[in-house]
Amino acid sequence: MATAKANKKMASAAIDLPECPVCMETMLGPIFQCQSGHSLCIKCTTSLCPPICPLCRQPMTQMRNWQLEEMISKAKVPCPNKTFGCVYMMESNDVQDHLKECIFREMDCPLGLVFGRCSWHGKLKEMMDHFKERHPLNCNVNTDTDVELNNINVKEDDRYMYLISQGKLLFIITMKIDTLQNMVYWTIQHIGSKAVAHQHVYEIHVTSKQDTRRKIVFMEHCFNDALKADEVFRIGKCGIMPLNMFGHFIKDNKMSFRFFIKRIPSSCNKEKKSKGDTNAKPQNDNSGPKGFGQKGAGNKGPGPKGPGPKPQGPKKPFKQHTNN
Ligand SMILES: [Zn+2]
Ligand SMILES: [Zn+2]
Ligand SMILES: [Zn+2]
Ligand SMILES: [Zn+2]
């Protein structure tokens, strides 16, 4: 008993939250007080019969301890996935948002979510193994070689997805042929937190199979997987090409593209520092793709706060290489 209490005490001290003097559990609002001012947790208050303070035998009142409630709502609490390894601390109001992007959460197979043919769910760290085992054609791509697509048909809707690991991070690349919009889209999303996603930019290089001098390069910021790829395509912050133009990149129903993912130097992300999955951050840029040069260096992560200059990300969805 004493040990259990001591453990609770330690846990509570670690997260800096006051505890109920009766049950020793971390206080959660609403908090009511007795006539002489003791604050009890809601669980203890409602279970008192008669409503007498166990500490001083004075009657309990309807008086709330607003200051304490406010303090608790602002106190940092650990991620509910702490036991699985998440070290992220946040205000209790932010827990639900964090759980949507916590890399230690239980996740569905990204292919299952889109194509509905896979019912796997598991942890992020197991996802690549799952892909290698069940979707080997959807993970065997890297920045060193072209992603080769056969049987491309611009007259039919189609979607290609690949899981990419770079350093310790996972990304998912989606290419979609949309015959209704008459467009083909590319996006690379980070599977994890928004903050880490904003630390990355990607490039998609599409070289024509008909004429290698025809080439398009897209460069964009990564979103995280909380946003559906279709939503990224809808807002247009992705690689986009009209299908009639795309046709000139295809030969014998074949096309290929290359991709690069680059971490923006951390000096550009200072304001994001407190928000990332610290346990997932790569320590350096060695995993960066070759041939990427300094193109990403001028890009700032679009941050909501900070008076600094506006992000200088590419305004246009793509730019054309003029190598004629
Ligand atoms: Zn209590
Ligand atoms: Zn009392
Ligand atoms: Zn977490
Ligand atoms: Zn799967």
TrEMBL record:
Which residue intervals are annotated with compositional bias (Pro residues) in the record?
A: 304-314
Quote the biased-composition stretches of kind Gly residues, using this chain's numbering. 290-303
Q: Which PROSITE patterns match?
A: ZF_RING_2, ZF_SIAH
Transcription found in the keyword field:
no
Does the record's keyword annotation contain Protease?
Answer: no
Metabolic or biological pathway: Protein modification; protein ubiquitination
Q: Which residues form the RING-type domain?
A: 20-57
Q: Which ranges form a coiled coil?
A: none
Q: Which InterPro entries match?
A: 7-in-absentia-prot_TRAF-dom, SINA-like_animal, Sina-like_RING, TRAF-like, Znf_RING, Znf_RING/FYVE/PHD, Znf_SIAH
Q: Where is the composition biased (Basic and acidic residues)?
A: 269-278
**Catalytic reaction list:** S-ubiquitinyl-[E2 ubiquitin-conjugating enzyme]-L-cysteine + [acceptor protein]-L-lysine = [E2 ubiquitin-conjugating enzyme]-L-cysteine + N(6)-ubiquitinyl-[acceptor protein]-L-lysine
Chain segments carrying region Disordered: 269-324
Domain named SIAH-type: residues: 74-136
What Pfam families does the entry give?
A: Sina_RING, Sina_TRAF, Sina_ZnF
Q: What is its EC number?
A: 2.3.2.27
User: What keywords appear on the UniProt entry?
Assistant: Metal-binding, Transferase, Ubl conjugation pathway, Zinc, Zinc-finger
Entry's family note: Belongs to the SINA (Seven in absentia) family.
The record describes the protein's role as: E3 ubiquitin-protein ligase that mediates ubiquitination and subsequent proteasomal degradation of target proteins. E3 ubiquitin ligases accept ubiquitin from an E2 ubiquitin-conjugating enzyme in the form of a thioester and then directly transfers the ubiquitin to targeted substrates.
Q: What is known of its domains?
A: The RING-type zinc finger domain is essential for ubiquitin ligase activity.
Q: What is this protein called?
A: E3 ubiquitin-protein ligase
List the gene name.
LOC113513288
